[in-house]
From TrEMBL:
Superkingdom field: Bacteria
InterPro entries per the UniProt record, alphabetical: Glyas_Bleomycin-R_OHBP_Dase, Glyoxy/Ble-like_N, VOC_core
Coiled coil residues, start to end: none
Organism field: Billgrantia tianxiuensis
Keyword Lyase annotated: yes
Record's keyword terms, sorted: Lyase
Domain VOC: 3-127
Entry keyword annotation includes Phosphoprotein: no
GO MF assignments: lyase activity
UniProt-listed Pfam families: Ble-like_N (PF22677)
Protein name: Lactoylglutathione lyase
Length: 137
């Protein structure tokens, strides 16, 4: 069995966050969703759990970072450079913030950053492993 990842994120407005992630291509799994949490599925192995602040506090008493800080940057691969750009364009029209960091273009790898409505930082990237320059020995 493949290992799965469930990224848990505190959100201020559950419905708004669900709509944002749905616009990026995630789907809701109603079996693990209620008025306090939503399980948003990107693939069989990648899930994002959106948790209201009250639900978040059931799991930890650590403070929720302000929306203008970064606790982690999550990276999602895309099938092409154009798909990276499409994701970023979708962000701006669905309540997120596009290009919060400078674009990264290394030829074999291309990436752009975004923040969801709660300020969680994501990197959308494309990479061609066959084009990675060899390392000097």
């Amino acid at each position: 069995m493949s290992r799965m990842i469930f990224v848990n994120l505190p959100v201020a407005d559950l419905e708004k966050s669900m709509a944002f992630y749905e616009a990026l291509g995630f789907t809701n799994n109603p079996n693990f969703s209620d008025e306090t949490a939503a399980c948003m599925v990107l693939s069989e192995t990648i899930h994002v759990m959106l948790l209201t602040h009250a639900k978040w506090r059931i799991f930890t008493d650590r403070p929720i970072p302000p929306t203008d800080s970064s606790e982690v940057m999550l990276a999602l691969s895309c099938e092409s450079r154009a798909a990276v750009d499409t994701m970023i364009e979708t962000v701006g029209t669905n309540g997120g913030t596009a290009d919060i960091n400078p674009r990264q273009d290394h030829g074999f790898m291309y990436g752009r950053s975004l923040a969801d409505p709660d300020g969680h930082v994501w990197e959308s990237f494309w990479m061609d492993p066959a084009a990675i320059p060899p390392t000097a020995e």
